[in-house]
Write a structure and sequence with these properties.
By secondary structure, the chain is α/β, with parallel strands linked by helices. The protein contains 9 helices and 14 strands. It is an enzyme of class 6 (ligase).
């Protein structure tokens, strides 16, 4: 099993003809993703050849869905056009929109997040500013390297792209049902809690790794949720133990104010909920290995 993305997913790429869209479409195709076309209003009706496949370019998400049955869109659209691209996907009621784009203004992300809610949350948004989602051996929507792990019984949800890759590699001997990179911006679509519940409901996910980082209170809220709702074992890691107070570290959402949002506070909250928290990614992987093999 997998969450949100599986071998039956039909994927389109918004921005398929741009350099990033073309490059990562090739990588997704190589990893077995069923990409059925792309969207670029200025190049509608054309075909693009990627990895030896002729892929149609459609004028809109709605047209692409009608012609191909697509149910997932991966968004590689520059920041200033990204809001309109995501709104187009929401209005077409595609099931999943994976927004890879970095640097989308917070106001724009708030707008399309609110628009999704206002129209009934028919589109699940992952991101923005995220590496995407992979169900190894089934499908890969985004920029996560597909060759660093295989299918298995661990679920992974992470704010950090690079730590997603590291954890997948560290636990490659066990493998993953799905890895979800939710992104580190202040406003994101899918949260830790959304992924935790999906993994809880997935019969083939036996244990969960949750990676957080400094800033905000998402990890504290996830800890409360785990305590009340999650029965599967969870191990955690919080990036940013050495971050100085008041300084943004990497992600736009990673800013600490006073004792709020610190790595120590998040670690404390998670441990109080029964989550084993590693001091490093490698230690976190070791904790997970002990749970799965024990």
């Amino acid at each position: 099993m997998a969450i949100f993305l599986n071998e039956n997913s039909k994927v389109i790429v918004q921005g398929i003809t741009g350099s990033e869209g073309t490059k990562h479409t090739a990588r997704m195709l190589r990893s077995g993703t069923n990409i059925v076309g792309g969207v670029n209003a200025r190049k509608a009706g054309q075909q693009v050849e990627i990895e030896g496949q002729e892929l149609p370019v459609f004028g809109s998400v709605q047209e692409a869905m009608k012609e191909t049955g697509a149910d997932v869109s991966v968004v590689f659209v520059p920041p200033k056009f990204a809001k309109d691209a995501v709104i187009e996907a929401i209005d077409a009621e595609i099931g999943l929109a994976v927004v890879i784009t970095e640097g989308i203004p917070v106001h724009d992300a708030a707008y399309f997040w609110a628009h999704a809610g206002k129209t009934g949350n028919k589109t699940r948004i992952i991101g923005p500013n995220c590496p995407g989602i992979i169900s190894p051996g089934k499908s890969n929507a985004g920029i996560i390297p597909a060759d660093i792990t295989g299918p298995g019984k661990i679920g992974l949800v992470s704010k950090s792209g690079t730590l997603t890759y590291q954890m997948m590699y560290e636990l490659r001997d066990i493998g993953f049902s799905t890895s979800v990179g939710i992104g580190g911006d202040p406003i994101i679509g899918t949260t830790h809690i959304d992924a935790l519940q999906a993994f809880q409901d997935d019969p083939e996910t036996e244990a969960i790794v949750m990676i957080g980082e400094i800033g905000g209170d998402a990890e504290e809220r996830a800890a409360e949720y785990i305590k009340a709702n999650i029965t599967k074992p969870v191990v955690g890691y919080v990036a940013g133990f050495t971050a100085p107070e008041g300084k943004t570290m990497g992600h736009a959402g990673a800013i600490v104010s006073g004792s709020s949002g610190t790595a120590s506070a998040k670690k404390e909250a998670l441990e109080a909920a029964g989550v084993k928290v590693g001091k490093t990614p490698s230690e976190t992987a070791t904790l997970m290995r002990g749970i799965v093999k024990g």
